[in-house]
């Protein structure tokens, strides 16, 4: 073969080059296109994966966020509003004892800073029903009296549809 090449060079003729599998001339263009396609696919997959991860980590749709906000708002602690003092009442305790008790209702502020109008008859009815017949010794103990008050707050707040924030004893005389 060297003789053909030498002759062709001396005469100025073009020598056909033989291309084998090891030359890589024909394969260079397809490998470059494959690499570019692979890079584009990898970028698209990464972008989609990142978007899906952000969707999951940031809470999904706006509807779930609105539901969470509404739930948090429902369970938010109300702020105290105006106080309504009620006239003291006398209640019969066990063993011939009496309790003169007065309470004040503290309204819970509603949205917008307003407050609902409270009327005390429901609270007085609950107060009388819960304290009638109690032992004087039970009400003398500060811890037991705190339990009684907590129970009254729960019942009265429920009766007023959570419009009552707290109650306060204004008079508490036993005899």
TrEMBL record:
The chain crosses the membrane at residues 36-58. The keyword Iron-sulfur does not apply. InterPro entries: FliL (IPR005503). Residues 1-26 are annotated as: Disordered. Its main location: membrane. It is a single-pass membrane protein. It is found in: Cell membrane. Keywords: Cell membrane, Cell projection, Chemotaxis, Cilium, Flagellar rotation, Flagellum, Membrane, Transmembrane, Transmembrane helix. It comes from the Bacteria. Controls the rotational direction of flagella during chemotaxis. Belongs to the FliL family. This is Flagellar protein FliL. It comes from Aquipuribacter nitratireducens.
